[in-house]
Amino acid sequence: MTTTAPASGPPAPDAPAAAAPAEGLPPGSSPWQLARRELRRRPAVRVSACVVLLFVLMAVTAPWLGALGGWSPDEFDKTAVDPYLGGLPLGSLGGIGPEHWLGVEPVSGRDLFARVVHGAQVSLLIAFAATAIVVLAGTAAGIAAGYFGGRTDAVLSRLMDLTMSFPSLIFMIAMLSVAKDVNRIVLMTAVIGLFGWPGVARVVRGQTLSLKHREYVDAARVGGASAWRILTRDILPGVSGPVIAYTTLLIPGMISTEAALSYLGVGVRPPTPSWGQMIAESVAFYETDPMYFVIPSVFLFLAVLAFTLLGDALRDILDPRGARS
C-alpha cells in the first residue's frame, strides 16, 4: 500500500491580490481606464464633472453669452432701477425678467448675467494659470530634490519650509496693495502661484524618493541613461497620478483665494467683474436687495464644490495611499 508523503515545509502563502484585474476590466487596463470607469460609477462625480464643464464653457464663451443676453458687463441701464428708492432694481427678485435674466446691480443697473459670466472668465483664468505655475514649479522642485538628494535636496527643502512659513495672505495683500499700475490679473496669478508650489513639491519629493531605487530606474542608470532621460521617462510618469489628483484639489482653493483677495479690495479692480468683488459690493445691499448677494455667492459656491468633489474622486482613484493618509 502506497502512501503519499506530506509536503515538506510550511504551506505556500496566498498569491497577492494585486494581480487580480479590476472588476469588469480586462487584464492590463491602464489607470486612466480604471479612473474613467470609477468616475462613471459615481453619480455625484458625474454631476460635478458636468458642472465643471459648464463653468469652463461659460468662461470660454463669456463674450458671446454676454452678447446673447443683450448687455455688456459695464453697460448701465438706468431704466432698470428706481432713483426714488436709492437705486434699487425695479421688479421682484432684484429685477429678474426677460430683459435681465439674473437681475441688475443696484444704483448702476448693470446686468448681473453679463457680469457673472465675465466674472467666471476672470476667476477661472486666474485659478487655472496660478495652478499651472504651482504644479510646474512644484513638480520640478520635488523631482529634483527627491532624485538628486544631498545638497540639492537640502537647499530645496529649506526653500519649501521658508515659503510655507510666510504668512501668505498678509504678504499677498501687501504686495497687491503696493503695486498700482500693473496688470492685476497677471500680478494676482504670479503672487498666488508664488506661495502654492511647496505643497506640490513635498508630495512629488516623497513619491520620487520611493521611485528612484526601483529596478527599472536602476537598470536605466546602469545602462548609461542620462539623468534627464531617467527623470522624464521613468520618474515623471510615476508621479503623474498624485500630481493630477493634487492639481484638481488646488483649483477650488485658487478660486477661493482670488475671490477672497477681490473681496478684500486688493484683487481685480473695477470695472473688471469678479465674483469676489461682486460679493463685496453686494454686502451694502443684502437687506434691501438680497439677490445681488445670492447670485454671485451661489456661482462661487457651486464652482468650488464641483471642483472639490471631482478632485476628491480623482485623488481616491489615482492616489489611494494619499487618500488614506
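The above is record 1. Record 2 follows with the same two-line structure.
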Amino acid sequence: MTASAKGANRFCSDLLAELESRGTPPNLVLSADTGVEKPETYDYQVMIAAWMAARGIPYEMVRYVPRRFKHRPPYYDILANVLTNATLPSISLGGKSCSLKWKAAPQEKFLKAWTPAKTAWSRGQKVVRLTGFDASPQDTRRYTHAASITNDLFDTRYPLREWGWDRALCTARIEAVGLPVPPKSSCIICGAMKPDEVRTLPAWCLRLIVLVEARAAPRLRTVEGLWRRSTRTRPGRMTDFIRAEALLPETEIDAIIRDAPADLVRFQDIAALVPLAERPALSDWLETFNAGRLTR
C-alpha cells in the first residue's frame, strides 16, 4: 500500500472536489498554519474542514512549535517570532526560510510520524504526495522548480497538471460542487502581498503591520520594510502605504511607532526574570496591544 497525502496551502478545493467525485479521495489532507493567515483564510479553513469531515476525508492542521526561547517570552507563530527577534519575515530580506520553517517542516514532521506512511516505508514503498499546482503559467514556474527535487520517501504527483486544468477550469470545478472559491492565502505580514491585498485587511491587521516594521526598523540596513524597497507603484514600507492611503488614522500609526516597540522590550526584559515554566508568552503582550491599550 502507498499512503497518499496532499498539501492544502490554498485548501486545493478543486483537486479535492475532483478526487472525491472520482471515488479516490486522499488518505490525508494536510495543511500548515503559520498563526497569522488572513481572517478569510481561517474562515475558509473551517468551512472546508467541515466539508471534508462530512465525506470522511481525514484532515490535519499542523503548526511549527519552537522549543528554545533562551531568556525570551515563548512564541508560537511567525508574527511573534519576528517581533521577538526585531526582524522581518525572511521573504522581506530576500529569503524563503519562513515558508520552510512554518509550513514545510511541520508537515514533513507530521508525515514521518503518520502510521500509514511508516507502514508504506517499512514495505519499501514511497508515500504519494498530491500537490495542487495547476497548468497556469504561474504554477508552471512553481512546478518546474518542485519537480526537479527528488526524495527517497515521497513521490509527488500533480493531478491538476495531468488533467490540463488551468486556473479558470479549477475555479469552475470548485463552483460546480457548490463550494466558494478559496481566497488567496498569505500571512498578514507577508512581503509578497500586493497593495490591493493590504487595502482589504481589517484595521487590527494593519496595526500589526505597523508594529512589525516599527520593531524591526532600528536593525534594517539593506531593506526599507516589508516590501523591501520602494518602486514606482509602492513604498518599501507598508506603513508608509497605510499612512498615504489613510487606512489607519495618522495619530494611531504615530502612537504605535512611538510606544509599542519600547513597551515590547520592557515586557521582554521583565519576562526574562521569570522561570521558563512560568514565563508569560509573547501572545500575552500581543493581546494587550490588539486591545489598543498601548496606543491610547
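The chain is about 45% helix and 5% strand.
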